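In the laboratory, one determines a bound structure by crystallizing the protein with its ligand and collecting diffraction data. In a computational setting the workflow is compressed into a single prediction: the sequence and the ligand go in, and a structural description comes out. We illustrate the idea with 4'-deoxy-4'-aminopyridoxal-5'-phosphate.
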Amino acid sequence: MSLDIQKIRNDFPILSRQVYKKPLIYFDNGATTQKPQVVLDEEIKIYTQENSNIHRGVHYLSEQLTQRYEDARKVVQKFVNAPYDHEVIFTSGTTESINTIAFSYGEKYVNEGDEIIISTLEHHANIVPWQVLCERKKAVLKVIPINESGELILDEYEKMISPKTKMVSVNHVSNALGIVNDVKRIIEIAHQNDVPVLVDGAQSVQHGKVDVQELDCDFFVFSGHKVYGPNGIGVIYGKEKWLNEMPPFMTGGEMIKKVTFEKTTFNELPFKFEAGTPNYVAAIGLATAIDYIQDVGIENIIEYEKELLDYATQKLESIEGLKIVGTAEKKISVISFNLDNIHHYDAGMVIDKMGIAVRTGHHCAEPLMQRFNIEGTIRASFSFYNTKEEIDKLCEAIITVKQMFG
Ligand code: PMP
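The predicted complex, in structure-token form:
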């Protein structure tokens, strides 16, 4: 293993703090990742030395920062291997990205009786915008089922797709269970039927290599805060053939070419989808975070996080009465589990008191919990700054929970 984990941990100031007088063990990386010092420094540098609204002034600061914002777009373009930088649109996060596509694509292409396909594994952010669209357009939402281990049943998906299907929208990796979906196959099947595919990459870009050209997805979305970047920034990658045809989602400043009281013409890509002042500080911070993880090395991250996941799975499985939810073979960095006869909230509270941050509840995936007939789970989600010793501490905490409630 080629990573110096202690050195990496030193890059993240929050990891050296204590919680309840115990060293913080942060296993809630699926919700948000911590930020390395370089990202924090970059944001402070912008506000203290460079701040100015972008794309507007002809003055020095504005021109410089506009350039840096556009450079950040190019960093994201390379990160996901998008063909053009104007196919990268900055949003506030995955939620806004999906809402933008659902509204805008839906406005143009979805009509009464049409169908949208999502999956049982989706986060609410990839359910509700499509549901609302279907209500608005009197379209029908269809859901790919899963088997007992949490894998999508692709045979059922193939039967579901029809000339009425207008969009398939699925996550790359499930936030609740960590299952990796075969999005390449899902896209192939959709494209055989001339249907575009949106991939929700909120839980995949931070754990592996994403190449939108290799996947051939039509849209790919993610959030900056889950990939070691700042809050309030997200991304849409979209093929220009779609983005050019789709109407804007939000309107206002910057997204226009010409405005009169009689008529407005819209700006070109990517600005057509970036109304108002964008979060340029966070966009540049995201580019810094991407540079950081590329320095750590995506291959190293994949290898080390797999080692952590395998270690944690093996150790947790050996605890009597612990049941892992989502046992599919292809998983990344997340373990969701329940303890026999112990409510996940009770367990979570005790684990928290030991300085260990895990997530409990439905993980914004209520229909998935309903599918498994459970209210929620305890979820530990790992990053390359976590260690096996921390996993040992989690196992000790679980044993204590069992002793307290057993
Ligand atoms: N999709 C998935 C798979 C997610 O994990 C999340 C965040 N938990 C979202 C969408 C929404 O992301 P955000 O809250 O950053 O908009």
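The longest helix spans residues 60-80. Keep in mind that any predicted model is a hypothesis to be tested, not a measurement.
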